[in-house]
Design a protein that fits this description.
This protein has 195 residues and is α+β, with helices and mostly antiparallel strands. The protein is built from four helices and six strands, in the order αβαββαβαββ. It has one domain.
């Protein structure tokens, strides 16, 4: 009986370790979506810049045609869903991309590889010597205002929501992962790694 109890305890410990490892693996796999989307957004912005001479904001709430420059960091500007929406629980729930694609994505030729996304996206853009908005933008160029036209693309992912929670935590910025790529960054920058 004692040996059986020891085996059960050992199996329980192994199961707990495996569960934690599996959750981390799933979160990393879903972050690969964000990396791919940010790379795609960056390349589309660079192509748009070569054609039009300016970067274009890509937001759910932007005007069509977009007003340049128009940096906007409001949560309602993210596509496909606002990060403060109660359904932004990407740890378990992918969000459907609308069909037809959002106008802002179609404008730059962005076509996601997936019909459902675990993260939500935003691109802010501005002209030379225009300060980015306070928030994420001010963290990227804290020392000075860019002297050239600029853009930054943000992916907001809430991959670490507790399993027993029906909505994201109220302190979203502390629990979400924000990945950013800019017009001059060599790769993806992690602004906040949610825990």
């Amino acid at each position: 009986m004692v040996e059986l109890m020891i085996v059960v305890v050992i199996l329980g410990i192994l199961a707990a370790i495996a569960t934690v490892g599996y959750k981390r693996y799933v979160a990393r796999a879903r972050l690969s979506e964000a990396n791919a989307m940010l790379a795609e957004l960056s390349s589309k912005e660079q192509l748009y810049f070569m054609d039009m001479g300016a970067y274009v904001p890509v937001r759910a709430n932007d005007a069509n045609p977009p007003v340049q420059p128009s940096p906007d960091e409001s949560v309602g500007a993210y596509i496909p869903i606002s990060p403060t929406d109660p359904t932004f629980e990407s740890a378990r729930t992918p969000h459907d991309v609308s069909n037809p694609l959002p106008a802002a994505w179609s404008r730059i030729g962005l076509r996601p590889r997936w019909k459902q996304l675990y993260c939500t996206y935003l691109v802010n853009a501005g002209g030379a010597n225009q300060a980015p908005p306070s928030g994420i933008g001010s963290q990227l160029w804290a020392s000075s205002t860019p002297i050239v036209p600029w853009f930054y693309a943000v992916a907001a992912c809430n991959l670490n929501t507790a399993d027993d929670s029906s909505s994201p935590p109220s302190g979203l910025s502390a629990n979400a992962t924000f990945l950013v790529v800019t017009h001059d960054s060599p790769g993806v920058i992690s602004i906040n790694d949610g825990h």
